[in-house]
Amino acid sequence: MPEKNTLEIFKPWLLERQTELLVDIIAAREAAVAAAAATGIDATDVNDLEDQASKRERTTLQDAEEQRDHDELADVQAALARFTEGSYGTCINCAQPIDFPRLEAIPAAARCLACQRQWEASRVPEAKASWI
User: Fold this and answer.
1) What is the pLDDT of residues 79-109, one digit of tens each?
2) What are the CA-CA distances from residue 99 to residues 16, 83, 89, 96, 129 (Å)?
3) Which CATH entry fits the domain spanning 4-131: 1.20.120.910, 3.40.50.1110, 3.40.1280.10, 3.90.550.10?
């Protein structure tokens, strides 16, 4: 396992990423409010099908991007909490060290590669079932 003081190099990146994500989330919300106000969206609006489809697609994409940012923010904040607890760099499943190259690639990683693969594989049936 990398030395704890070696792992400290990831903390500034995590703090910076947390700030970036918060700024992005706030900007997205403000943009959505401004867009709704500018277009005068009203439940009684009658638009052609193409306009409606375009708005739905744009809203769906924006919602997905915002959800992705919220998910990443939760991961980053959890990693910062692990720094505070002294467990950063340790897999939350097996308690083994997370390889340094994995942390370099994904500083907010909570699991070692083996446990991450197992966790992802366990979620696949759940995702498939939701599409059925």
Assistant:
1) 999 999 999 999 999 999 999 999 999 999 9
2) 22, 16, 8, 9, 33
3) 1.20.120.910
